[in-house]
Specification:
This protein is an all-beta fold. The protein contains no helices and 11 strands. It has strands at 2-7, 10-13, 18-26, 33-39, 46-51, 59-60, 68-73, 78-83, 92-99, 115-116, 120-125. Strands 2, 4, 5, 6, 9, 10 and 11 form a 7-stranded mixed beta sheet that branches. Strand 5 (46-51) and strand 6 form a beta hairpin. It starts with a strand and ends with a strand.
């Protein structure tokens, strides 16, 4: 079992930045691929960014256009999402998720993830 707790959300003006954190406890953090998803009202949960167990290559939703950066610190059991140049359409609840599977292709669908945090609200005003 892995427990995930997100923090860092809030209200920001368009063009601003936020840094989300997701602290993990329980099992060995480095055994899990990690990802961030988001869900806006009335919309499906969508993949934002992902990072494999040992770091290395990162994966991003095409729509982000390079504005977000995912990173992880296995010594601190934490994954981060740095969000820059925020837009009103980035408004959503942001969730971190952990995948214990060993996959040839990085998973970008919610169903592939085994553990989820409670989410943190990000609101971008215009």
């Amino acid at each position: 079992q892995v427990q995930l707790v997100e923090s860092g959300g809030g209200l920001v003006q368009a063009g601003g930045s936020l840094r989300l954190s997701c602290a993990a406890s329980g099992r060995t953090f480095s055994n899990y691929a990690m990802a961030w998803f988001r869900q806006a009202p009335g919309k499906e949960r969508e993949f934002v960014a992902g990072i494999p167990r040992s770091g290395g290559r990162r994966y991003y939703a095409d729509s982000l256009q390079g504005r977000f950066t995912i990173s992880r610190d296995n010594a601190k059991n934490t994954v981060y999402l740095q969000m820059n140049s925020l837009k009103p359409e980035d408004t959503a609840v942001y969730y971190c998720a952990a995948d214990r599977g060993s996959r040839a292709v990085f998973a970008t669908t919610p169903g592939a993830y085994d553990y989820w945090g409670q989410g943190t609200q990000v609101t971008v005003s215009s």
